[in-house]
Amino acid sequence: MASRRPLAEDRQRQIMTLLQESGALRIGELTEIFDVSDETVRRDLTALEEQGLLTRTRGGALAESVHLETSFQRRMRENGAAKLQIAQVAASYVEDGSTIIIDSGSTMAHLVRQLRSKRDLVVITNGITHVEDLLSNPTLTVVVTGGLIRRATMGAAGPLAVESLSSLHADHTFIASSGFSASSGMTYPSFDEVAVKRAMISAGADVTLLADGTKCGRASMVKVAPLTELNRIITSQPISASEQSKIRDLGVELIIADAQDRPELNSADPDEDEPQAAQPQLAEPHPASTGDSR
Asked: What is the pLDDT of residue 17?
């Protein structure tokens, strides 16, 4: 009698074990090992890539350790100009003396660098890469959640992080997501990080999603929250006019920081120690929403 095929979670765990041993795998190899279709293997590889555990290639996958740069470093480079401008707009919402929560992730790393001129903030974060930049401002108080560190985002996740956030309150939460749309809400591929994001939303009096436009319309495996739990979204092009209308119809303020309209940002190095200062027009972006902004 044929042996029982492993469930998706078990199969993906075994794929990671094989990948760590060999450094690279081909789809054909995996279909033979697990006795499943090419499409099933591709779904497994896509799910693992979304968690930052491997890199898809034509016909297979590579272990992250094969690359000289980490998944997080690669995300810092991707859409860097748009992420920088989104961060500049987001920083204009941070008031001196306030308590804020900042999620892990590459767009949030850009936001952290924009806080160097702020004063007397209490910053709560699960992002371990944020800490050094935050501590460079001696007026800031930094609170780091505990938890298991995920290499893809360099963020703490799991029950310990959720528990620490459940006892805290912030004036403003800045949150990240791998996908968002009016119909699907905010979505993310990792169950552990989804629980942390939900706790961050609950802890913030004001909640802003920072996500570049490539994430609009993308849906990952787990729903974090409907967009109605947000006060605003700060994003970039591309985002269709119809999707803009749908989001605003939900009563969510939508701010589009289009890097294409700012040539000087397109040449910015997202890894520079000194980020460019926001231009005056970004200091008062707040365009009117067609709906009530909660």
From this structure: 82
